Amino acid sequence: MKSQKILNDPVYGFITIPSELIFTIIDHPYFQRLRRIKQLGLTDFVYPGALHTRFHHALGAMHLMSITLDNLRNKGTEISNEEYEAALVAILLHDIGHGPFSHALEYSLLKAVPHEELSLMIIELLNEELGGKLDLSLRIFKNQYERKFFHQLVSSQLDIDRLDYLQRDCFFTGVSEGTIGADRIIKMMDVKDDQVVIEEKGIYSIENFLSARRLMYWQVYLHKTTVSAEKMLINLIQRAKDLKIQGAQFTISDEFDYLLGHELTLQDFKQNPNLLKIFLELDDLDIWGAIKLWKKADDYVLRNISQMFLTRNLYKISFSNEPFSMDELEKSKGKALEKLQIPESDLQYFFSHGKVSNYGYLIKDRINILTKSGKVIDVAQAADLPNIKVMSKIVEKHYICKAKSLS
After folding, report:
1. Is 58 exposed, middle or buried (CB count within 10 Å of its CB: 0-12, 13-18, 19+)?
2. Residues with Cβ within 8 Å of residue 101, at least 6 apart in sequence
């Protein structure tokens, strides 16, 4: 690069793009697409400031990775320039496979095609286009590189991805309870026996990190209003798919139209490279464009749910710590049918039930603490932190959500 490019990030201030390769990737249409996918999907229905994008997050994660690698080098971990750049590329592209509205449509618009698998395929596609320059990044991403700590920095319970999204999501939602000391956590990181470890004096920062993440899940990511809005969107897409199968024609983008008309699986993507190109044309704007057109649709289900979205008339949702009995579900369905005056066969689009779950810490995927004596222990074993053992329990909440009325 003639001169180093610098971006101004609202969370960290100035971020430097350190190499020509990284600048080429950021400039690529596959990566620029992330500008049009919001990081938190429909969460701005609850927190109006949550309008940041996957593009913001990817750049922030790259910035934190560079700080982390610099810190590890200062502590004596040898990291070559090639490894340094490859790790930055791996974290920069870790979310490139996200589709519109991120997790909300991962299992409805497509048929159980995890974004991680799509990310891998897109990195492989980029690697072909860039003449194999991402070979090492791919090995790190797939955990096939012999120095395993690089993959841990990209994907683990204490990875750079989480350090960025927790700080960024706190900043844009204004939920201060999720604040973490990412700077201190990074300063406390080291590598021992090819594993990422945290120095013992950083243990309370880790406890705070795990606690903050758990709080953010209940207060932001699994907020009941967000869950309700996501179920509405899933039901809307399902109705459009059902109508498409029956031969309906829609005035929407070609790519969205194609995905509505096909039940694509991961195997389909692996067998037909063109499907990935179609997917890479899709972003939040395709869906919003359709919703704006569908508010005048002849089909009353499409029309009503679209109008509800545009006026924020969301489904009423009830959470319970215990599963709903069949009797409770039937009673709730009966009331909804009576109120909405719709055929029973259409109730599935206006009524949903299910569960959401959250955990603070998964013991099987441990966070390692390096004690003063040089021993490596799991953070949950640290003597005076019973809180972390409690956080390893998976908490489930059950919900019923239904339309309050038709427009």
Report:
1. buried
2. 37, 38, 41, 42, 230, 233, 284, 287
pLDDT tens-digit readout, 314-339: 999 999 999 999 999 999 999 999 99
Residue with token string 């409770």: 328
CB 319 within 8 A of CB 397: yes
DSSP strands (E only) in 276-348: 316-320
Residue with tokens 């109008």: 307
CA–CA gap between residue 252 and residue 258 (Å, rounded):
10
Q: Which amino acid is at 122?
A: I
Mean pLDDT score, 372-401: 82
Q: How would you list the strands of the sheet with 395-402, edge to edge?
A: 316-320, 395-402, 351-358
pLDDT score, position 363: 67
Structure token pair of residue 118: 């799509």
Residues in the chain: 407
21-66: per-residue pLDDT in tens? 999 999 999 999 999 999 999 999 999 999 999 999 999 999 999 9
Which DSSP helix (H) or strand (E) runs through 132? none
3-class SS of residue 344: helix
CB atoms within 10 A of CB 213: 22
* Separation of alpha carbons 243 and 346, rounded Å: 12
CA angle 200, 201, 202 (to 5 degrees): 90
Choose among 393, 313, 392, 315: nearest CA to 354.
315
Pairing relationship of beta strands 351-358 and 395-402 according to DSSP bridges? antiparallel
Q: 183 near 11, Cβ under 8 Å?
A: no
**Residue 46 identity:** V
Q: What does the alpha-carbon distance between residue 115 and residue 276 come to, in Å, rounded to a whole number?
A: 12
Contacts 24+ apart (CB under 8 A), 30-33: 30/96, 30/122, 30/125, 30/126, 30/280, 31/55, 31/58, 31/92, 31/93, 31/96, 33/280, 33/281, 33/283
Give the pLDDT band (50/70/90) at residue 3.
low
* Distance between start and end Cα atoms, the chain: 56
Q: Does 87 score more than 70 pLDDT?
A: yes
Q: How many CB atoms lie within 10 A of CB 135?
A: 12
Q: DSSP state, 264? A: -
